[in-house]
Fold this sequence. Notes:
Blueprint: H1 3-15, E1 24-25, H2 27-34, H3 38-50, E2 54-56, E3 62-64, H4 69-90, H5 96-111, H6 115-130, H7 136-148, H8 161-179, H9 182-201
Antiparallel strand pairs: 1-3, 2-3
Helix pairs in contact: 1-3, 2-3, 4-7, 4-9, 5-6, 5-8, 6-7, 8-9
Amino acid sequence: MDPNKITETLQSEIENGTLAPGTTLKQERLAERFGVSRQPVRQALERLLANGLLTKRSDRSLAVNGLSANEARELSQIRISLESTALILSIPHLTQRDLRKAIRLNDDLFEEEAPAIIEELDIAFHRTLYAPCDNGRLLQMIDELRREARRSYHRQPPGSQARKAFYEEHNDLLAVCNLGDVSKAVEIIEKHISITSRQLVEHPENGAPQ
């Protein structure tokens, strides 16, 4: 296996939360896992370090980097601005068909176990509500920023309070969209995104709820 494939695999695992922030990556274990020498593993780790996905500790070990509180706050601010704009533009044009589709997606999301599928369902749910804004560039930017927050889906296992709250926030958003209440919808999406932002910087080793 070449360094490119190793880099792609590890990057995917970091981004989807399989490798949690703070996880130490050891060359010898990765070499054994991928069935290669340490050299391609070292090259892959150097690329991940250069891309900001890993951090070098004082003992020279490499660990998975997480978003800092400031980075999560910045991401949250941008998302709130973009998604609020999309809601303001789309709500006057939402149809009952759009809302029924969003309800089905939210119900599927509530039962799903795989974080990667939860991510796709969540993106589809919000895109369904935002699509009538008729601004393709805005929708694309929202999708991309939502993928940056994918680690939060690992904090919402089925049956958890986090999953229930996630589901209920979606239902609250659906209810006010159905009423055409733009200001309340914006209020709910601000709260919804802010909670996700906090989950991005809560690490199990810091006592974050599971």
